[in-house]
Amino acid sequence: MAATPADASSSSSEAVVGGEKSNKMITLISSDGESFEATEEAAKMSVTIKHMIEDGCADDGIPLPNVPAKILSMVIEYCNKHAADADDTNKHVADPADADEDDDNNNNNASAGEKEDLKSFDASLVAVDQATLFDIILAANFLSIKGLLDLACQKVADDIKDKSVEEVREIFKIENDFTKEEEEAVRKENAWAFNE
Amino acid sequence: GSHFVPLLFRRPCSAPPSDAAAGADPGRPRGRHGGRAHAARASPRRQARDLRPLALLHPPHRPRPARLRRRSPLRPPPRPDDAVDRVSRLPDALLRGIVSLLPVKDAARTAALSRRWRGVWRSAPLVLADADLSPSPAASALSRVLGAHPGPFRCVHLTSSCTEESGHLLAPWLQLLAAKAVQELVLVSSWFSLDAVLPAAVFGMATLTRLHLRLWKFPDTAGLPPGPGVSFPNLRELGLCSVLMETRDLDFMLDSSPVLETLFIEGNLFTLRLRFVSQSLRCVQIIGSFLEEIFVVNAPRLERLINLEGWTPHGGCTKVKIGHAPKLQLLAYLQLDAGNHVLEVGNTIIKAGTRVSPRTMVSSVTVLALDVRFGVRNDAKMIPSLLRCFPNVETLHIKSGKCDLSTGKLNLKFWHDSGTVECVRSCVKRLIFHDFRGDRSELAFLKYFVETASVLKQVVILLSAGSTSAEEVHSKVAKFKRAGEISVALVTGCSDLQGRYKRGSEFPLGDFFFLLKFPSANY
């Protein structure tokens, strides 16, 4: 891990041995003023935070005005789990032939048991009420944590899949603001999608 | 005393377990309504929650940042039936992202949800699998969708639409896909006849990043102009599954794909000699195909060369020639056959007894797999010479091939007499023995290996179905010298390809080759 300019002068950093993982803790401050700590490695799962660390802005804690404490603690939990897992590398080089380019958290080196753990962790993380789920989406988007964003968006997609338009409106409280003519026009445009 | 810990696994060869239901972890606090409600926050100095070990409060000596608003100590649990439409308030980019995760019909229907949603599907890159269009085969619905969406097309999987009846639509579809900048395309023919010729329009899809073809006859590339207007400037992954093509067609594809990293060939029906000249290729995976020769002429970035489950006509075998491949790390399987040339390195054919020299070494390889019939003396005798060409092997896979007529068993003395093999002595850390039957020759080799390999840490023995029993093997292996210093795992019940190479096996996947699977739509 490259040393940032801040490392040398910061009193809160631990010794960073060249080439090895830093054990440095990063402080993240939620919108409602609570502080949380996470390892640098976990924190860097957020591209936004990663850039701030690399730019040396992270020493006094990183304020995250968009992320409330409840959500931030869940985000950190996700990052911890997935950073720890991604770190479980054996000596073999990460697979260049990875078919899942979109899968950031592709843990080639995890055993089946670990992968099951991770899957059930992910599932329970997003098994929350809508308000929380959308807060997670917004936070993951703001913090640029692709894996978490994909996970949460997939949950929303799963709730939409195989449902009629009326059912989706009901679930998400979407108000139908079409005029009758507009709605007819939309349904006609994509008639192939509506024949159930 | 021995630290030999026998481990017996019954490998489940059935489908992987379904996703655990939410709330699988009993240790997490669950609010009344199933949400992740926090417990009481009575005091400003909360104790760190032990369930979230690293989400600690900052140490007490640091000044607490000011709170922006007061919060009551007991937070009410969230109401799941809160009547706010949050989804529509998400920014466009996120809505598009969500819609593109849906099967195409559901995605298109979101346009009717509200005015906010009307344009979302069309403005998101199209993700389409024709399996989601009904009725199936759905040629007319497909034409309508391809026409309705303005593009770009991120991912299109046509697995049922390409029938003989819709054959006349294929070239127009491909042209439409090209016009709408398709990135990932899976094209499976349902003709099941050699008349299913892929239209030349496929070469017009310059936006492709991934292309997988199955059950086609490749168009003749001889008539195509090569050169500066390359056909596939963005193609990173190419899969050819039961595709009838000539060697020069494959050469054409490689020449036309300057950034191709992954090549996947399966079920190739006709003999081919593969030549790899590619500045970009990193992984080649060949399954169930017969190839006379695989010649890595010049592939400076090639890291993995995998040839699995190939079948060879009687008397044939696949020759692997390594030219310039300085980054080759994984090479699997070399099929040992004393009657044929199996390996050629830098213009030297490697046989039993070939003198080792730097020119004949491929020192970048750390994972090597050999397919050897222990019952054929001359085949097994090649092992030391071959291993000497790979001085830095850390993980060795040995697959025990069946042979009808055994020509004599090799005993321990043979192996010791064959001289030191440097990588065995000081490099190999992991040995994985596939299709182990418990024959004396196999056991002799195993004994030699375990007793000689001084840095060996782990042995995995995959037992061939219906041969010896794990207990028998255990008891024999336990008697080897050094058996106490290594971990030995025996795995039963995995004789099929899927069982062995399924992603997410019980062992770290570094021990097994990661297999590319023929892609299915990812939702």
From TrEMBL, chain A:
Xref: PANTHER family: SKP1
This chain belongs to which protein, by name?
Answer: SKP1-like protein
SUPFAM superfamilies reported in the protein's UniProt record: POZ domain, Skp1 dimerisation domain-like
Give the family per the record.
Belongs to the SKP1 family.
What's one Pfam family the UniProt record gives for this protein?
Answer: Skp1_POZ
The protein's matches in Gene3D superfamilies, at most eight in alphabetical order, are given as: Potassium Channel Kv1.1, Chain A
| Compartment(s) where it occurs, according to its Swiss-Prot or TrEMBL record | Nucleus
Subunit arrangement?
A: Part of a SCF (SKP1-cullin-F-box) protein ligase complex.
Question: A biological process (GO) annotation for this entry?
Answer: protein ubiquitination
Biological function: Involved in ubiquitination and subsequent proteasomal degradation of target proteins. Together with CUL1, RBX1 and a F-box protein, it forms a SCF E3 ubiquitin ligase complex. The functional specificity of this complex depends on the type of F-box protein. In the SCF complex, it serves as an adapter that links the F-box protein to CUL1.
Q: What is its main location?
A: nucleus
Where is the SKP1 component dimerisation domain positioned along the sequence?
146-193
Annotated pathway: Protein modification; protein ubiquitination
Low complexity bias (residue ranges): 1-15
Keywords linked to the UniProt accession: Nucleus, Ubl conjugation pathway
Annotated region (Disordered) at: 1-22, 87-114
Query: Which terms in the GO cellular component ontology are assigned?
Result: nucleus
Q: Where do the SKP1 component POZ domain residues begin and end?
A: 24-83
TrEMBL record, chain B:
In which residue ranges is the amino acid composition biased (Basic residues)? 29-46, 59-73
Pfam families on file:
F-box (PF00646), FBD (PF08387), LRR_At5g56370 (PF24758)
SUPFAM superfamilies, A to Z:
F-box domain (SSF81383), RNI-like (SSF52047)
Composition bias of kind Low complexity appears in: 10-26
Query: Out of the domains of life, which is the source?
Result: Eukaryota
Domain (F-box): residue spans on this chain: 84-131
Chain positions covered by the region annotation Disordered: 1-86
Q: Can you say what this protein is called?
A: F-box domain-containing protein
User: What species is this protein from?
Assistant: Aegilops tauschii subsp. strangulata (Goatgrass)
